[in-house]
Each structure stands twice: as C-alpha cells, then as structure tokens.
Amino acid sequence: SSTPIRPVFDALARDHTNRNSVSLNQYSKRGLNLIEKIPAILARFRMNRLCIVADIQRAFLQLTIAPENRDYLRFLWKLRMDE
Asked: Of 14-18, 27-31, 39-43, 50-54, which one has max mean pLDDT?
C-alpha cells in the first residue's frame, strides 16, 4: 500500500505567460452569500418551543433533474475496488 494522495487545485491560478488568461474561478458562477443569513436563521430556530430537523440525504434522489443536466450528476460505482 502507498501513501494516500489528496490532489489540491488552486482555482485562482492563471497562466502567467498569457496576459489574457483567466482562472477557473472567473468562469464559475457566483452564488448567494448565505453566511450573513445564519444569525436570522438561528434566531428563528430559538423562537419556538419545538423544532423539526430533517435529514436531506435521501431527499436528493427525489429531486427532478433536467435531462440536459443529468450528465453532470453521474456516479462512478465499482463493486470491487481491486478491479
């Protein structure tokens, strides 16, 4: 057995030999900043006497994915790791 390797990528890296190069982050779509909503969510969570917490792990398989986006959500599954 060998030492496990964990590849790390710098998404801000650019080709410095080309002035017009862009980084991977520049191509990525920016999402919402949800960190600033955490205090309000926690405050609402504490307002009531009871709360409901759900595990969404199984809910993922119940989502409907548009056919043109299904290629991006494929899994590689191996039954035997020695193959």
From this structure: 39-43
Instruction: Compute the average pLDDT of residues 61-81.
Output: 79
Alpha carbon distance 23, 12 (integer Å): 5
d(Cα 22, Cα 28) in Å, to the nearest integer?
Answer: 11
Taking a C-beta distance cutoff of 8 angstroms, is the pair 65, 73 a contact?
yes
Query: Measured between alpha carbons, how far is 60 from 67 in angstroms, rounded to an integer?
Result: 16
25, 12 in Cβ contact below 8 A? yes
Give 82 or 19, the one with higher predicted confidence: 19
H-helix or E-strand spanning residue 38 = helix 38-47
pTM over 0.70: no
